[in-house]
Write a structure and sequence with these properties.
Blueprint lengths: L1 E2 L2 E2 L3 E4 L4 E6 L3 E7 L4 E11 L5 E14 L2 E12 L4 E12 L4
Antiparallel strand pairs: 1-2, 3-4, 4-5, 5-6, 6-7, 7-8, 8-9
């Protein structure tokens, strides 16, 4: 995943019934839907935890993806909220992903 401040690794899992999961590079859950041939939209909510494991906010991830074979590229925005639901920042994010296994 590329965003201002650097790149990071992540892993996503998309189920046939429309669930979307972030399992590496953060933990989150949401949904995905088709945008037609080769395209899909996914949205995931990721909690932000402090050092004691308390939720101090969340990230709302929204990505528009284009799939080609076993990979996809997506672009979108992550919105970061504090524990009181105030938007603290908006971050553009680009993802380049390759299917790992089948």
């Amino acid at each position: 995943m590329s965003r201002p401040g650097g790149d990071s690794a992540g892993s996503f899992h998309f189920t046939a019934c429309g669930h979307a999961l972030l399992t590496v590079g953060g933990i989150g859950a949401g949904s995905w839907s088709s945008l037609g041939p080769g395209g899909f939209l996914f949205r995931i909510t990721e909690p932000v935890l402090d050092g004691q494991g308390r939720c101090v906010g969340w990230v709302d991830i929204e990505q528009h993806a284009s799939q080609r074979g076993g990979s996809f590229t997506s672009r979108g925005t992550s919105r970061v909220y504090d524990a009181d639901g105030r938007l603290t920042r908006t971050v553009p994010v680009e993802i380049h992903a390759t299917r790992a296994g089948s």
